[in-house]
């Protein structure tokens, strides 16, 4: 059930949530999203084009971060707007990596019962998404 | 060949329709670590007011990607895909993508900005089910200049 608008306040925190990401995760994401760029799967190829290792799809990171706000909303269909900049790579070595996601309610719109949530996502201590915000339709 | 700035404002032929089924949604949801039952369980989705299971918010990119290929693979557009970095992404959902949808997507080049030898290109894809708007995506890609 979707979260009630009346129960939410500005400054409310979401998470943090830690999400593991391995090479298998990226193969699954490549197949599900149709993005088969080898920099997300093939270590040799990634290194040959100057990357430190396999890197996660930016869109995997964005999608994984969205789960924090979807779960908070109580219904993934309530995320009506979602946007981000990609500010750094999530490097995924053979033994995997972790994405840490947290959020905060930045503003509430009484008229539409919509909340704007700002998300922070970091990997290996580095911020990987910039200006990542979601607008959620509450009840 | 440099990025062709004459493409600003150009719309490409719509692609699709593509059928959305529960397996596609479940695979995408699992890959991004989503566990909300509205992606996996039709009963849960109906209880939330949907016709069938719904996609996670970023699955719209799958259809954006199919539509924007018409642009980025156009040889006259001058886009060297090996030099492309994803800079920014935005989604506006008019309603969730739902199993049973037959989606069409059409890409328009909204802007091309040259800066420091790089090209920043913003493309918009309108995703529709027949006449009904479903989602609008805005993607900014950066085509890095040659050294």
UniProtKB/TrEMBL annotation, chain A:
Domain of life: Bacteria
Classification via InterPro entries: Fatty_acid_synthase, HotDog_dom_sf, MaoC-like_dom
GO molecular function, one term: fatty acid synthase activity
One GO process term, biological-process aspect: fatty acid biosynthetic process
One Pfam family per UniProt: MaoC_dehydratas
GO cellular component: fatty acid synthase complex
Stretches assigned to the MaoC-like domain: 10-118
Family the entry assigns: Belongs to the enoyl-CoA hydratase/isomerase family.
Protein name per its UniProtKB record: MaoC-like domain-containing protein
Automatic annotation (TrEMBL), chain B:
Cross-referenced SUPFAM superfamilies: Thioesterase/thiol ester dehydrase-isomerase (SSF54637)
The protein, known as: FAS1-like dehydratase domain-containing protein
Ranges of residues in domain FAS1-like dehydratase: 8-136
BP-aspect Gene Ontology terms: fatty acid biosynthetic process
Signal peptide start-end: none
PANTHER family: HYDROXYACYL-THIOESTER DEHYDRATASE TYPE 2, MITOCHONDRIAL, HYDROXYACYL-THIOESTER DEHYDRATASE TYPE 2, MITOCHONDRIAL-RELATED
Source domain of life: Bacteria
Molecular functions (GO terms): (3R)-hydroxyacyl-[acyl-carrier-protein] dehydratase activity
UniProt-listed InterPro entries: FAS1-like_DH_region, HadA-like, HotDog_dom_sf, UPF0336/Enoyl-CoA_hydratase
